[in-house]
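Protein modeling request. Please complete all fields; requests missing the sequence field cannot be processed.
Requester role: graduate student
Desired output: 3D structure, token encoding
Chains: 1
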Amino acid sequence: MSRSFERICVYCGSNPGKRPEFAEAAQNLGVYLAEQGITIVYGGGDVGLMGILANSALAAGGKVIGVIPEKLKSLEVGHTGLTELYVVDDMHTRKAKMAELSDAFIAMPGGFGTLEETFEVTTWSQLNYHFKPIGLLNVAAYYDHLIAFVNHSISEGFVREVHAGLLKYSDSPSELVELLSETKIPKIEDWIEPA
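Delivered output (195 residues):
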């Protein structure tokens, strides 16, 4: 049985990237989520893909909640036109707040921060600290190498087969949200070996 989402957290770059497809995808995702009535939770910046995502959703009548540390508010140019903006003390608080506010997660193209955030919530899912699905918006094949590496980790025995489906991926916002709605997260008692 598929589920619906009130809020989806979107991780994405504070840079726009080199390909025009990245900016276009951020705009499309923002509009799509707004049209679906899904509130976006994101890092609170007004630059790069973050700004494009937020501005496109707001322009389409959507709601956008930002969470940004005080230290980064000036560096990432904190967005002043959001539905709601949380200014927090540090990155740990930011990530926890974004996760708390969200029903699911989508990672757009981004750098170290985007990757770190994505794998943190994936690890939390694996260990059942939450049961919220995670997806990669694989724009212009950006995540192809990462997907291949995850499969490599499975084949080498560092990621269990049962967790192969924790990270969904698509280049289509609508298809990705549908995949997220159908995600089944394995319960830890069904796979962990007792001591």
